[in-house]
Every structure is written in structure tokens, then in C-alpha cells.
Amino acid sequence: MGSFLVLYGSSEGQTAKIADRIAARLRGRGHDATAVDAGALETDYSLADFDAVVVGSSIHVGKHQASVRSFVDANAGALAALPTAFFQVSLSSVGDDPERRAEAARYVEEFLEDTGYQPDRIARFGGALRYSKYGFLKRLLMKRIAREATGDTDTARDYEYTDWAEVEAFTDDFAAFVEGRLATGPSESV
């Protein structure tokens, strides 16, 4: 089977949790999958050993993680040559509000336009409110944002909005796409 890199950028850990779940799901399908925090990467990280790459980033104040942006910029050529998927994690993807969903889609569109990155699959997942990890000012800011986004303003607890079935469906879809590509690749035609 194939070798997958699941690269992510996370602030409070929800994107890391999703990346780990994606990697575990890929391993469950018989693939080699490694989840790596983009912020911990060496600048000359090579994609040569991977058959496919999944890139994930959380959104904070309308911006993707700088480490993910740097990775995509630095590896544009390698990413263009491989099957890739991109997932975004944000509160804008929580619920059915069309305006918030459009906002989440805009974040993805802007990131892809700015970087020139063209993934084969894209997903937008709801994130989490980690009040327990926020400092005083961030807790106040997130409470105000949450009031509009989810209504979950009790700062004595954390909230998770990720639809895990959606994460698994995205992973399975991308894995099937890559499996199809690997089956038709040069190594199989010998």
C-alpha cells in the first residue's frame, strides 16, 4: 500500500487530533501514515518518500497556520506532483448557517489562491472551543465569537464540534483516490 504524510498546523490541538485520526484511519486501510506538526519540521523536509500528502490547518482570526503556509510554499513543486488533500478546521464550519459556511469556504479559496496549491480533495471540519487552554484575553474573545457561532459560552468547559464520521468519509474518499492512482502507477504494470 501507499505511504501518506498527514501534515498539520494546530493551536489548541483539535487539528492535531483530526490529523491523528486521519493517519490512524489510513493505517487501518493498510497504508503507512505519519502525522507531523508543520511547526516542528525542518525547513528542508523531503516528500520523496511519500505517495500522497494530506495538509491540514486550523483558522485563527481569519488566517491559516503560518507553518502550514510555509510548508505549502516551500514544497509547491512536490505537492503538485503528488495526490494531495487539504482540510481546514474552524468554528465557521460549525452548524448550518450559510453565511458562516461561506466564510469557511472563502478561507480555503483564499489560501489556495494565495499559495497556488491545488489539492485533489478538500474538506472543512468544525473545530473545538478549548476554553481550558486559553488565557484570559483569548477566553473573552473566543466567548464573544462563540456567542455568534455556536452559543456555547460556558467557559468552565470545552466544546468539540468535529464530525468524526465526516473526517472518516473524507479520509476514505482520499485513500480510495490514492489507491486507484497507485494501482495504475508504473510499479503495478511490471
Explain briefly what this protein structure is.
By secondary structure, the chain is an alpha/beta fold. It is built from six helices and eight strands, in the order βαβββααβαββαβα.
Question: What does this protein look like?
Answer:
With about 190 residues, this protein is of the alpha/beta class. The protein folds into 2 domains: about 5-125 and about 165-190, Flavodoxin domain (Rossmann fold); about 130-160, no CATH class. Helix content is about 45%, strand content about 20%. The protein is built from 6 helices and 8 strands, in the order E-H-E-E-E-H-H-E-H-E-E-H-E-H. The chain has helices at about 15-30, 65-75, 75-80, 100-115, 135-150, 165-185; strands at about 5-10, 30-35, 50-60, 65, 85-90, 120-125, 130, 160. Strands 1, 2, 3, 4, 5 and 6 form a 6-stranded mixed β-sheet that branches. Strands 7-8 form a two-stranded antiparallel ribbon. Helix 4 (about 100-115) links the parallel strand 5 and strand 6. Helix 1 (about 15-30) crosses helix 6 (about 165-185). The radius of gyration is 17 Å and the shape is globular. The two termini are about 15 Å apart. The mean pLDDT is about 90.
